[in-house]
Design brief:
462 residues; transferase; alpha/beta; 3-stranded antiparallel β-sheet; 17 helices; CoA-transferase_III; Rossmann fold; CoA-Trfase_III_dom_1_sf; CoA transferase
């Protein structure tokens, strides 16, 4: 059994499915080449998502599509930020204060792409809000990595000490991250309850799916940002779901990142602090809620999902819902640094990184599959479920997987031919090679009203 198939079987075992026959996974050449088996994570997570889509197709009376792994499409989708162009210009993926910095006793990695994260990071290090990179670098060099990590946590900033793999595996955080299946699925309800629209719990109540979009009629509330969550909800939208992304109006968004990951969705702005009733109305008629908040954050905002029997609650977090770091913020690059991946892919003198943000993308496709299989299970018993992935759990799988290649060639860049163009924006083509393009490009940010529509396919980019 190849390593990609091992991930497929780990997913199937975790969600209670019988093992399926192996899907052909072509050799990638130097695509996504790394010491760790990144190609296996990428291909395996795509197979998991494609196979779940076929299970939905079968349940709704549609012919199977099969799962075809296209190495160019997979590597393009996983490295989408390297292919994105707007007006011919490439984005800057990381801000000035995001990256590796030498500390007094090693390295730390920081993330400050959002203005509020930059402000918190500077405050954590007792630097002025207008602090420049030179002062920041000097300050980090004068502090120990653990001091920086702790100060950032207190301030709500994002920084991690670069650890060795052995340090991570032997730590309480590492042990928590390595426990459980790649996708955790649990029942939320002890018995089926009432649901809007007479009975949206059944697949038949969702209407007749189109032959290309097996999730036609499924309503998904998307409360995710950055990458892993948006990748999952973008794939659900590709498969026909009506995905309404909800963002708080008081937080900034990175324009190019939104354009790269919001295809096929609608976008609205809603402040849960003042518009909780409007959000509850959306939630009452939703089939799926996908969140990227830290565990407990949504409940603290006043949202009580237990009032909605039959709801599929899907979540992605950096460190997992349990364990000592459950409440900490984090991103793909930060998890790589803390878990030892940065040193596996680099050296003590210069930490490295995976050839793509594979923890984000892989976790996103795994979450997509978990949502679809939870919908299928709900159609059988009427019971809602929680579906959880974490970047740290995906990192633990990658670190434990066999077939390391320390002498790998340099990773080839994503193939520009595996892209789609709308107006002046170029994005990676959908990773599921046997489905058409997304129904529409990313809409203008916040352009939709906060309500469900009967025929979202009528919406087109202005």
């Amino acid at each position: 059994m190849n390593t990609a198939q091992q991930l497929v079987h780990a997913y199937e075992m975790g969600v209670g499915l019988p093992p399926t026959a192996a899907v052909a996974v072509p050799e990638p050449g130097a695509r996504l080449a790394a010491t760790l088996p990144v190609w296996a994570l990428a291909a395996g997570s795509v197979v998991v998502a494609g196979a779940a889509a076929d299970r939905v197709r079968a349940a709704r009376g549609l012919p199977a599509r099969g799962v075809r792994v296209d190495p160019d499409r997979v590597s393009a989708a996983f490295g989408s930020e390297r292919l994105f162009r707007q007006g011919g210009a490439a984005p800057s993926a990381f801000a000035e204060l995001s990256g590796f910095f030498r500390s007094a006793d090693g390295w730390v990695r920081t993330h400050a792409n959002y203005p509020h994260h930059r402000e918190r990071l500077l405050r954590a290090l007792e630097l002025p809000a207008d602090g420049d990179a030179a002062r920041f670098t000097d300050r980090v060099a004068a502090m120990k990595g653990a001091e920086i990590e702790d100060a950032a946590t207190v301030a709500g900033a994002i920084a991690a000490r670069v650890r060795t793999e052995a340090e991570w595996v032997d730590s309480p955080m590492g042990r928590a991250a390595a426990s459980g299946p790649p996708v955790a699925v649990d029942s939320n309800d002890t018995a089926p309850g009432p649901h809007p629209s007479d009975n949206r719990l059944s697949l038949a109540a969702l209407g007749t799916p189109t032959i290309d979009r097996p999730l036609t009629g499924v309503r998904v509330l998307d409360l995710t940002r950055v990458l892993a969550g948006p990748v999952a909800t973008r794939t659900l939208a590709l498969l026909g779901a009506d995905v309404l992304r909800v963002d708080p109006p008081h937080l900034p968004e990175i324009d190019w990142q939104f354009a790269d990951n919001c295809q096929g969705k609608r976008s609205t702005l809603l402040d849960l602090r003042t518009d909780l009733a409007a959000f509850e109305e959306l939630l009452a008629a939703a089939d799926v809620l996908v969140t990227g908040y830290r565990p407990g954050a949504l409940a603290a905002a006043g949202v009580d999902t237990t009032r909605h029997p039959g709801l599929i609650e899907a979540s992605v977090s950096a460190w997992g819902a349990s364990g000592p770091w459950g409440a900490r913020r984090g991103f793909d690059s930060i998890v790589q640094a803390a878990s030892g991946i940065s040193l596996v892919e680099g050296t003590a003198d210069r930490p490295g990184a995976l050839p793509a943000q594979a923890l984000d993308h892989g976790s996103g496709y795994l979450l997509t599959a978990g949502v679809m299989d939870a919908l299928l299970a709900r159609a059988e018993d009427g019971i809602g479920r929680s579906v959880r992935v974490s970047l740290a759990r995906t990192a633990s799988w990658l670190l434990a997987a066999p077939d390391r290649t320390p002498d790998h060639p340099a990773a080839t860049p994503p193939d520009p031919s595996a892209t789609v163009t709308h107006d002046d924006i170029v994005t990676a083509a959908p990773v599921l090679a046997d489905y058409d393009d997304f129904r529409w490009p990313a809409p203008p940010y916040g352009s939709a009203q906060p309500f469900w529509v009967e025929a979202p396919d009528h919406f087109h980019r202005p």
